[in-house]
Amino acid sequence: MSSEGTALRSPVDDPPASASSARAVAAGLFRACRPRQWLKNALVFAAPAAAGVLTTGAGMRGSLVAFAAFCLTASGTYLFNDSADVDADRRHPRKRSRPIASGVVSVRLARVTGGVLIPAGLLVAWAGGWELAAVVAAYVALTSSYTFWLKRQPVVDLVAVAGCHVIRAYAGAVAVAVPVTSWFLVVISLGSLLLVAGKREAELRAQGGNGTRATLVTYTVAYLGHVRVMASGAMIVTYCLWALQEHEGLARAPYAVSIVPFVLVVLRHALLVDRGVGEEPEELALRDRPLQVFIGLLLLPLAVGVYLT
Fold this sequence. Notes:
Helix content is 73%, strand content 0%. The chain is an all-alpha fold.
């Protein structure tokens, strides 16, 4: 029976090996672009939302252009970064399964694709205006410097990665031509430093000081914990001053209420990092239900304050 069944099968029942291989490479290349990390690019919506223009047609269009530009350029820089780190990633317990490190995607293909995505992202940004294109180009310059040099410089690497987040947030303001306040920049900068320090601390805890990232040899859990405490404390104080001093009368109420969930978000993040699960901050936002609830409770009064008062 089995031989008869085999004889009746047509060659079209099984796809050619080359087709299966091509699909595997395409799927691996898509994963190597790190689509989950596109969540970071949502920072471009922060300034338009805070300015109350995100619900307008022009505001939404400008924000989406900025988001698309950063998704393309960020994926391109990820491909170059993973190509440069391929040997180190193969020694990492989790990163060795990445498409480039595992050999699913060749280093050459990754670099060629990255060389296409980055100019494509700059062209998309140019469609939103030369100012946005300049900001995206600055992001590419910073991430390229990080890939080839800054990642091996202790302390500077923390600031460089945090700076990439700040550039995203600033690009959102440029895309819709709204002014950026000092309060906004300080909170975003401190929040970005907090996330990066938490990421490094989680990596250090997970790898026991024997990680493949060069700067982990220099850092200690105590030092990174100190950076987190400093950044979170300064960020909470700055946010409270903004919420209570920059608004008057009834308009102050929703911003004052937002302080509570803001602090809860910071405290929840601290707990998760101490548990050693903050290595991928974007994963926390996608998977941790309490953190999602706290973020929702934070956005609600802010939306009321911006759009209803």
